[in-house]
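Handout, page 2. Input:
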Amino acid sequence: MNATATSFIMIYLLTLLLIATDMVPMSVAALIGALFTVWIGLSYGVFTYEEATSFIDMKLLGLLIGTMIVMEVAYRSGLFRLIALYTIRAAGGDQRILFVIMCITSAAVSMFLSDSTALLLIAAAVTAISRVMNYDPVPYFVSASIMINLGGTSTLIGSVSNMIIGLSAGLSFSDFIVYLSPCELILWMLTTLTLYMLYKSKLKGKNEVPEYDPWEGIEDRKPLIWSAILLAVFLGLFTVHKNLGIPPEAVALGCAVLALAIGRADPTEVFRSIDWETIFFLGGFFIIVGGLEKTGLLNDLAGWFMNMTGGGTFVLSTILLWISGLTSTVVSNIAVALTFTPIIRDLGAANTIPIWSALVLGSNLGGAATPLSGVVTIMTLGALKREGFKISMSEITTAGVLKTFTQLLFANLYILIRFGL
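Output:
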């Protein structure tokens, strides 16, 4: 290994260290790493400036930005809040039923909204209901954060890591559903049951549900109706885009333009709400990984994986599932996905679908194991603190670690059975 390759490895590891320790925002950490990667790469002739700019996957950024705009416009119309409030009303005041409905609703909403937006939506509903019904909000908040992290596993647009993997593997929206939705649905039930058993002692009693109007606060229903129609078109096009020969980023950006045109939302406010930190993080980390790939290190690592496992698909899938899952407990799952996608491409395995599925499951399931695993758990602690409730780090870690190992064990079994390995 030459000095240049060693330098790129050090840059990569230092970037992960900055992200894991939260010394600087993750976007800044990635941009610092990208700056040093470009500087060393150009200085030693590893790549040209044009090659460096080509490391950034503009198709992925287009898919991400388009999806964010569509979901932000729908969110601002009040559509998701309306669905959440009607769902909560169905519980009838029973804490146990409310808990189960809250878990399922949290997971379902996060299939389309970003994790942070989904948590803000669910947190608003939980806060309102817990105040009116005089319920302890801790079980609901902690469980919602875990279910939100789980919810986006089976859709192409459910998480940024899914978008990265989907575009790299050539998996369509319908492919994600076909390969992963059975696992996702069972994991919803398994995780809800696990969380219910953990918080069973706190979910006793039934209070009378007060009257409230879910439509209250929605002054203009037309944007909501248009958002519902557009969302149906958006998801419909994603389901059939492969058959139509339309790339997913074109669907996302096209629907984003329509959303801005008919959604009556202020474009300036919508653009401000886009998660630019994630976008800049992606841009920076693409360059870091591109530098590693140019040196041949990732190709060598892929060869090492093949030799170590003998090329067995199940062994490769299992190792990748657990490595990506456990790594995602301390490092952003976006970084995990960006790191492993070029390695899988270089494996040369005959059947890569189980391996890609393992990466999807691992990178998603490890994201809420500890309070430091992701933004959702941090936001949960902040929301509880604002409501005057204290929760120990050990309590949220117990719930997170328990669900992570339960989910990874089942995911491993699912890959074995689903793909007949």
